[in-house]
Specification:
With about 400 residues, the chain is α/β, with parallel strands linked by helices. It folds into two domains: about 140 residues, Aspartate Aminotransferase, domain 1 (Alpha-Beta Complex); about 220 residues, Type I PLP-dependent aspartate aminotransferase-like (Major domain) (Aspartate Aminotransferase, domain 2, 3-Layer(aba) Sandwich), CATH 3.40.640. It is built from 14 helices and twelve strands. β9 and β10 form a beta hairpin. It is globular, with a radius of gyration of 21 Å. About 50% of the residues are buried. The mean pLDDT is about 95.
């Protein structure tokens, strides 16, 4: 008997971009002092006050089945947060609580793509995007951006990728892996393209609290976009709750009603004590979110300082998120070769740009996810390694 083509073909022909990460973890397990600048995992873990709330909720008995759409209390809190930050009227009926942002991405594409439809997404991209699209039976269509234009999507590139089968477009700002924050002009061009071709827009906004330059604009807030936009949110990055697996989709009421049916047949909701902790965390407000984001703001400044006076590496404007995208083409190495050499010679693990699509070939992604002193040491050694090539 054979497994389904859908499940065996999720990652296409490659390793889904995780080869360097897996190698680094094996080296670390063997006792080598590898400094990991690979995945978006906070070095400061979930705050104790959130864990205390989670424990109290579980101890108080909220361990049975929770409401599949999410508790009313958390859905109302998320809706209020979105309305306050975007100015777009948002109610509980616009919100579905999901087991993290990844589950929300899968559900969103399930909502808007039939098998055989095509779904566009921006390249460079988070490594799971094409597999998520394949997982719902749709065909992934990458839209390449350009390093020379700071990876801001261009209308011509969107138009070039369009086929009659395309039914949706997914974007991510602040962006993983590039750290780029899409400008208002870029977002207006994207939303104009979606309206022109009657496409659903899926907006992954899990880094919306990590803005270093510019502003975060949700495309749902732009003219005539509320009824064609599905917004993905998560507690993972904003509140360092990656392992708690709690996210959401904000979408038109009809979309949410059908996604509740999907959740009933798939995830069956999120643990109640997790939701109580998420509600509590969101209620701590902007100051708390800025505290969680502060280490990445500091490390970005460390990197910018260290880069002065050298020309082996170019920093893509990092307006947000916990990553830096570095153009290392002046070294003559591919991103994969650079990352392999850096790991073998310096015991520093970064992600090759090729892990995130063709557009970021000749680049590397650096996650700013180790303590400041270790980060400064690792980044200085990275620059020295690049200069010697």
């Amino acid at each position: 008997m054979d497994l389904s083509k859908r499940i065996t073909g999720l990652t296409g022909d490659g390793d889904d971009g995780w080869g360097i990460f897996i190698k680094a973890r094996r080296m670390k397990a063997a006792g080598k002092p590898v400094l990991e600048l690979t995945i978006g995992e906070h070095d400061d873990r979930t705050e104790q006050i959130i864990l205390d709330k989670m424990h109290a909720s579980a101890s108080g008995g909220h361990t049975g089945y929770a409401m599949v759409p999410g508790t009313d209390a958390l859905r109302e809190t998320v809706a209020k947060r979105i309305e306050e930050r975007t100015g777009v009227p948002t109610s509980i009926d616009n919100i579905l609580i999901t087991p993290g942002g990844q589950s929300a991405l899968f559900a969103a594409h399930s909502a808007v793509c039939d098998p055989g439809d095509a779904a566009m997404y921006i390249d460079p991209y988070y490594a799971t995007y094409p597999g998520t699209i394949r997982g719902v039976g749709a065909v992934p269509v990458p839209v390449q951006t350009r390093s020379s234009l700071d990876f801001q999507p261009q209308v011509d590139d969107l138009e070039a990728g369009l086929t009659p089968q395309v039914n949706s477009l997914m974007i991510n700002s602040p962006n993983n892996p590039t750290g780029v924050v899409y400008s208002r002009e870029t977002l207006e061009n994207i939303t104009g393209f979606a309206k022109k071709h009657d496409l659903w827009l899926i907006s992954d906004e899990v880094y919306d609290t990590q803005i270093w330059e510019g502003e975060h604009i949700s495309p749902r807030a732009l003219p005539d976009m509320k009824d064609r936009t599905l917004v993905i949110g998560s507690m993972s990055k904003s509140h360092a709750m990656t392992g708690s697996r709690c996210g959401w989709i904000c979408a038109p009421e009809g979309v949410i009603a059908n996604l509740i049916t999907l959740a009933t047949h798939t995830t069956y909701g999120v643990a109640g004590f997790i939701q109580d902790a998420a509600k509590f965390a969101l209620e701590q407000g902007v100051d708390f979110e800025e505290k969680v984001a502060a280490p990445f703001r500091r490390r970005r400044e460390i990197a910018k300082r260290l880069m002065k006076g050298q020309n082996a590496v170019k920093l893509i404007p990092a307006g947000g998120a916990m990553y830096l995208m570095l153009d290392i083409r002046a070294t003559g190495l591919s991103g994969e070769d650079f990352a392999e050499g850096l790991l073998d010679q310096e015991l520093i693990a970064v992600m090759p740009g090729e892990s995130f699509g063709a557009a970021s070939s000749g680049h590397i992604r650096v996650a700013m996810t180790i303590p400041d002193d270790q980060f400064e040491d690792a980044f200085a050694r990275l620059l020295k390694y690049a200069a010697e090539k």
